[in-house]
Design a protein that fits this description.
127 residues, 4 strands, four-stranded antiparallel β-sheet, alpha+beta, Alpha-Beta Plaits
Length: 127
């Protein structure tokens, strides 16, 4: 039996205070786990949550509404590839590799979506 795969929600805010408040709304609105919350640069923050797809959608909706005008963008990735989460939090160790590829994006939502699509479409390891 294949292991159940969860959904990942990622949202970016252009106010750290509003982002923290909105993230609090997300984790209280539905049964999700906060897996990351990081500053991007001065004044910008992003949060990532993990859970069942419906729960992640509900939590992300609540967080984006709470963030109001400070909400930049949010996405839900149903059935997220299992390598995305460890790479997201820097828990992937690689002792050697044959090649190294990079994806450069302007925002964390695009980076996470690119990582998921890469892992699902090619034999790669996310680091």
């Amino acid at each position: 039996m294949e292991a159940r795969r969860l959904a990942l929600g990622v949202v970016e805010f252009d106010s750290i205070a509003r982002g923290i408040e909105a993230t609090d709304f997300m984790v209280k609105a539905a049964k999700v786990q906060l897996v990351a919350m990081r500053n991007l640069c001065p004044g910008k923050i992003w949060s990532a949550i993990l859970g069942e797809t419906a729960e992640v959608r509900a939590a992300l909706s609540a967080g984006m509404e709470a963030g109001g005008e400070a909400t930049v963008e949010g996405i839900v990735i149903p059935d997220v590839h299992p390598d995305v989460y460890p790479a997201l939090v820097g828990a992937t160790e690689v002792e050697e590799w044959e090649a190294l590829g990079f994806v450069e994006t302007l925002n964390p939502t695009a980076a996470v979506l690119s990582a998921d699509r890469s892992a699902k479409s090619a034999e790669v390891r996310l680091v």
